[in-house]
Amino acid sequence: MTLLDSLSPRALAAPESGIVEIINYARGRDGLLPLWAGEGDLPTPDFINRSASEALLGGETFYTWQRGIPELRQALSRYYQRHFAVHLPVEHFYVTASGMQAIALAVQALTSPGDEMIYLSPCWPNIVSAIDLAGAKSVCVPLSFTDGRWVLDLDRLEKAITPKTKALFINTPSNPTGWTASREDLIAILEIARRHGVWILADEIYALYYYGASERAPSFLDVMEEGDKVVFANSFSKNWSMTGWRVGWIVAPPELGQVLENLIQYSTSGVAQFMQRGAVVALDQGDDFVRENIARATASRDILCDALIATNRVETLKPEGALYAFLKIDGITDSRQAALDIVDKTGVGLAPGTAFGEGGLPFLRACFLRNPAHIADAAERLSSYVKAL
């Protein structure tokens, strides 16, 4: 018997990240254009860093509120009033150590071992592992890929619900596909959840990265009513270039408050107070920076997608939301091997669609939240690669 044989089967079954595999393969190469991870190329802005630094130097290094410091929960309430036109008292907000932890704790709260949680695929792989590590069963409902667009079949979603189903995980705008639920989609999903008495775990991290007519994507907050069983997971990572900070939040009915506080206590015992000070400033003073990030993403999305579509060998359309072009290149069936080949031959790092579950195999994901000039360079390298196949 080896040491591994004595570990939990649940832990042993957790897969290596297919995204991180490519990152580790090519990290540090000269001339690399890394489009594999879901982050931009701008560092956290100084006004956020200064607030955290001043709090750190001022001695804010002790245990703190497990639900989040009052000032941050109040700032979150203001943020939702400003961007979603809803008044949510502070009792709805719980600060977590990343959006990933927000999802993991929500899964733990909503499911027990043997329960089922439905997710839409292709999807960010971490949600599947979060469900499986909690002892629940992850149930895939594939999106359909038609004429370059991803479509949700609502009948297929409802038919996947069984007596063991406890929740639906809905990520919109979607990582990696860019699929964005319409208001009508959200109403229909919510009605399905009500009929079956299941929760919705809504990942709306990319809500502000929306390329439609309005300033943000449709949200369950637009259509839900008091008493609806909806929990939201979110993060400071994308909007304010704070990926390395690992700070996120949960929005949930106040009745869940003590349960969520307990889960935070027994995982991290709260987020460092000085980091929360930076998060307060991000929310209250960061709207202009968010708009700058969105403008960069919009310009770079157009540059990358236009160039690749012009090769006539890439099947995709410009995504409605989020930060990713999900590309299907003629002749490529194994995206893992293709990602390794592309980084070797072009110096452009892409995430393989194999990492994103059912439906992702022939696709590659490129994050376009970067300097448009760098994206133009990446688009030229990738176009040359595609034409040479």
UniProtKB/TrEMBL annotation:
It catalyses: L-aspartate + 2-oxoglutarate = oxaloacetate + L-glutamate. Its EC number is 2.6.1.-. It comes from the Bacteria. GO terms for molecular function: transaminase activity. Keywords: Aminotransferase, Pyridoxal phosphate, Transferase. CDD domains: AAT_like. Its cofactor is pyridoxal 5'-phosphate. Residues 45-382 form the Aminotransferase class I/classII large domain. InterPro entries: Aminotransferase_I/II_large, AspAT/PAT-like, NHTrfase_class1_PyrdxlP-BS, PyrdxlP-dep_Trfase, PyrdxlP-dep_Trfase_major, PyrdxlP-dep_Trfase_small. The keyword Transferase applies. Pfam families: Aminotran_1_2. Belongs to the class-I pyridoxal-phosphate-dependent aminotransferase family. NCBIfam families: PRK06108.1. This is Aminotransferase. It comes from Rhizobium rhizophilum.
